[in-house]
Amino acid sequence: MNPRFLFDAAWRGGKSLMWLTIFNTVVALFVTIVMQTRQSFLVNWVFSMLIGCSIDLVIAAMRWIIWRQQKPHRIAFFVVCMAAAPIGYLIGGNIGLLIYGVKAPSFLSVLKNGEGILVIMSMFISLFGGVFFWNQSKLAELEAEQEKEKARSEAIERQAMQAQLQLLQAQIEPHMLFNTLANLQGLIAIDPARAQNMLEQLIRYLRASLNSSRTEKTTLRHEFELLGAYLELLSIRMGKRLSYQVELPTDLEEFLLPPMLLQPLVENAIKHGLEPKVDGGHIQVSAQVQAENLHLKVIDTGLGLPHDYDENRRTEHHQSHVGNANVRERLLALYGEQALFTLSANSPQGVIAHLCIPVNI
C-alpha cells in the first residue's frame, strides 16, 4: 500500500479525533458550568468523552450498514446522527457508570429520573456535530482534489519541460549536425585522420545528447562532457579560429541540474559571437560555488552584445534569443526567482552568460 496514502489516512483520523475531543470537552464545560450538575468537571468530561465517542461509533456503524462505500445523502445522514444520539448516550453513559462502580439504569428509568433533557440535548449536539464533521469531510475532499489537481499540473509541467527540451535539441542539432557532416565529407578525401577524429567526437556528442534528452536531471560532469564533445567538433571544423577551455572542479562533478542549460548558451556564443568574427575567438565554460549558489559562466571573445541590447526586453521571436529565452523560462519554472540568468559585456570584447542556481534545492 502507498505510504503516502497511509500517512494521509492517519492524518485525517488524527484530525477527526482531535476535533471530537475538543467537541466533547466543550460539552463537558457546558454541563459543568451552565447546567451546574453536582459532578466535577473531570467526571463530566469522562462521561462526555464516552458518550461522544459512542455516538461517533454508532454513526459510523449505521453509515456503513446503510451506505457501505457509497457517499451518504446529506439530510439522511443528519437524521442518522440524531437517531444515533440516544443509543450512543445509553452506551457511553452505562460504560461510565460501570467505570465508577454504579449500577447502570435502564433507558426508561433514565427518562423518568429527569435525564431526558440530556438525551434530547445529545441529539441536537449530535446533529450539530454531524453538520460540523460533514463540512470537515467536504473540506477534506476539496483539499484532496486540490492535491490531485496539483499533482496533475506538476506532471503536465514536467512533460512540457521534457517536450521543450526535446524541441531545443531539435533546434540545436540539425544546424550543427549538417555542418559537421558536410565538413566530414570534405575531410575524408584530404585528411582522413582529422575526419576520423571528427567522426569520433560526433558519435561521442550524439550519445551524450541522447542521454540528456531522456532525463529530468543530469550531472555537471555529464553536461561538461557533452560541451567538450560539442566544442571539439566545432574546433575541428573552425580550425585555429576557435579555442576553448572547460573548467569543472572535481567536487562539483556530481552536482545535479536540469540538462541542456549550458548547451544553448554555448551554441549562441559560437553562432552569434565567434563564427561571424573573421579571426574567431576563445570560449570558456566554468563552474564554481559561492555563497550557497552554483555559478555557471560561458565567456566568449566574440562580436559582443548588440548595441541596442536590453536585459529587460524579451525579443523571443528573434532567432538569436530563442536559446536565451528557453533558458530563462526553464529556470523560472524550476527555481522561481531564486535562480538568475544574465548576459553582460566581456572586456575587451565578447559576452559573459552567467547562470546562478541555488545549491539547496
UniProtKB/TrEMBL annotation:
Residues 139-173 form a coiled coil. The keyword tRNA processing does not apply. InterPro entries: Bact_2-comp_sensor_kinase, HATPase_C_sf, HATPase_dom, Sig_transdc_His_kin_internal. SUPFAM superfamilies: ATPase domain of HSP90 chaperone/DNA topoisomerase II/histidine kinase (SSF55874). Keywords: Coiled coil, Kinase, Membrane, Transferase, Transmembrane, Transmembrane helix. Residues 257-361 form the Histidine kinase/HSP90-like ATPase domain. SMART domains: HATPase_c. One of its GO terms (molecular function) is kinase activity. It comes from the Bacteria. The chain crosses the membrane at residues 16-35, 41-65, 77-102, 114-134. Pfam families: HATPase_c, His_kinase. Gene3D superfamilies: Histidine kinase-like ATPase, C-terminal domain. The keyword Membrane applies. This is Histidine kinase. The lineage of its organism: Bacteria, Pseudomonadati, Pseudomonadota, Betaproteobacteria, Burkholderiales.
